[in-house]
Specification:
Elements: H1 2-18, H2 20-26, H3 31-35, H4 44-50, H5 54-78, H6 83-86, E1 110-112, E2 118-120, E3 129-133, H7 138-150, E4 153-158, E5 177-181, E6 194-197, H8 204-209, H9 213-238, E7 241-247, H10 274-294, E8 298-303, E9 306-307, H11 318-327, E10 332-335, E11 341-343, E12 345-346, H12 347-359, E13 366-368, E14 373-375, H13 376-386, E15 393-396, H14 411-417, H15 425-447
Parallel strand pairs: 3-4, 3-6, 4-5, 6-7, 7-8, 8-13, 9-12, 10-15
Antiparallel strand pairs: 1-2, 11-14
Helix pairs in contact: 7-12, 9-10, 11-13
The protein binds nicotinamide-adenine-dinucleotide and uridine-5'-diphosphate.
């Protein structure tokens, strides 16, 4: 009986909640009902929302919440990273990334918050995931800097054969940067939008003069062929864009001057440079075959002699040799009679060209180089003017199959990529001297001969 009574009270009470009009009719006093006359005609839950500006608060809350979620991704890109997280703790850290050599620090489409961290001024561009093979090398590390500054996510793949961790260690701690020790001769699976394929033991010391030069040459060939095949396979599998960094060496000792992309070259297939030259020619062939046969979106850059900070100190290339020799007060070694010519491009110009090529719509190949042509003797004079006018010159025998002249015709890149180099040799050389001085000094300190 007690239970029955209880049940009937509860039921009555529930019914009362559902019909506020009935409730007010039976109850003598209800302050809320009197305060808000519309509560008589509206369902009770709605009336609850409308009372005491609750609805207003809810709407304002929803507005604030949605504004935050819309703006959050943009704000997180604009926010400066914690500078301490970017800086490695190693005591041997040398700020090689500091932009004293980077002309963007002077006139820049990027806003700088100091060091190497910058953001693009134009927000709203889709952020890409990008692999740079050979990204710990000379050219690769500058490319990585610029891609990160643009706001992309970058994965570097490198086996450190000629590259150095120091070239990218200023990005350690940046969540948008990853470094993978891997040999591109082995396959790898990653999910990315673009692949810049630079990995290659590129410097002449490694493919000409090394005591184990045959092995190194073969590594060169193998990297160019197997490495390129693996990266093309990856691009095909995941639908990524693929850019090959080929070389002016595909023209060999050219019979056409300046060299246009239409020139098929004059290469010795059995000489000491062949592994590099033929390796790159094969890499171009594979790239075009994957494009035609498998529909991979590809780009081919033919890079001419490039110089700048972070070049290997003793890689045997002429600019790094002359600059290091002048700083160390050694004679500048000119091979042959010094009348052979090259055209030297500053690394920041090359990086601009590579990115314009990747983002553009044309497969190529494109010559990327500075058409300013110098004999090796003229180069030696510029180095003397820049570093030490008292430096002497020492002539040495030249190497086999050395191209007599080289100069890019860049009209195709100018027209289709809207790209041309901006830094003349006399402006670019001083930009690498501070970096070289620093590293030579550190090397000497390491050896204990201060
Ligand atoms: P680099 O030697 O400084 O960089 C090459 C990078 O590739 C290094 O970090 C090296 O460790 C890495 N690497 C080599 N073999 C590898 C492998 N099997 N797996 C993974 N990583 C590997 O040379 P660079 O001057 O920066 O050249 C970059 C690219 O540009 C190369 O493909 C080169 O052929 C091309 N290129 C450069 C120049 C130039 O003047 N610098 C001229 C023409 C072409
Ligand atoms: N060279 C030179 N002295 C050196 C190193 C190179 O005179 O200490 C010459 C070399 O013989 C060649 C030119 O400089 O004619 C460019 O050589 P590098 O190896 O830099 O580039 P590549 O030959 O691949 O263009």
């Amino acid at each position: 009986m007690k239970q029955l009574h209880k049940l009937s009270t509860t039921t009555h009470h529930r019914r009362d909640e559902e019909s506020p009009t009935i409730l007010t009719a039976h109850q003598p006093y209800s302050p809320k009902a009197q305060k808000h006359p519309y509560s008589r005609s509206l369902p009770r839950s709605l009336s609850y929302l409308l009372t005491e500006q609750r609805l207003l608060f809810i709407i304002v809350g929803i507005l604030i919440g949605s504004t935050f979620f819309i703006l959050q991704p943009t704000l997180s890109r604009l926010a400066p990273p914690d500078p301490d997280r970017r800086r490695p703790s190693s005591s041997s850290y040398v700020p090689t990334s500091v932009s004293y050599w980077n002309r963007e620090s002077v006139s820049s489409p990027y806003r700088s918050w100091g060091g190497s961290g910058r953001v693009p001024a134009g927000v709203g561009r889709k952020r890409s995931r990008i692999v740079v093979t050979g990204g710990a090398g000379f050219v690769g590390s500058h490319l990585v800097d610029k891609l990160l500054r643009r706001g992309d996510d970058v994965i570097v793949i490198d086996n450190f054969f000629t590259g150095r961790k120091e070239n990218v260690m200023h990005h350690f701690g940046d969540p948008r940067f990853e470094l993978v020790r891997h040999d591109v001769v082995e396959p790898i699976l990653l999910e990315v939008d673009q692949i810049y394929h630079l990995a290659c033991p590129a410097s002449p010391v490694h493919y000409k003069y090394n005591p184990v030069k045959t092995i190194i040459s073969l590594m060169d060939y193998k990297t160019n062929v197997m490495g390129t095949l693996n990266m093309l396979g990856l691009a095909k599998r995941i639908g990524a864009k693929f850019l090959l960094t080929s070389t002016s060496e595909v023209y060999g000792d050219p019979l056409e001057h300046p060299q246009k992309e239409t020139y098929w070259g004059h290469v010795n297939p059995i000489g000491v440079r062949s592994c590099y030259d033929e390796g790159k020619r094969t890499a171009e062939t594979l790239t075009m075959d994957y494009h035609r046969g498998a529909g991979v979106e590809v780009r081919i850059a033919r890079i001419f002699n490039t110089y700048g900070p972070r070049m290997c100190l003793d890689d045997g290339r002429v600019v790094s040799n002359f600059v290091a020799q002048a700083i160390r007060k050694q004679p500048l070694t000119v091979y042959g009679d010094g009348q052979q010519t090259r055209s030297f491009q500053y690394v920041a110009d090359l990086v601009d060209g590579l990115m314009a090529l990747m983002e553009g719509e044309h497969v190529g190949p494109f010559n990327l180089g500075n058409p300013g042509e110098f004999t090796m003797l003229e180069l030696a004079e510029v180095v003397k003017e820049t570093i030490d006018s008292s430096a002497t010159i020492e002539f040495k025998p030249n190497t086999a199959d050395d191209p007599h002249k080289r100069k890019p015709d860049i009209s195709k890149a100018k027209e289709l990529l809207n790209w041309e180099p901006k830094v003349p040799l006399r402006d670019g050389l001083p930009l690498m001297v501070a970096d070289f001085r620093n590293r030579i000094l550190n090397e000497d300190e390491g050896k204990g001969n201060k």
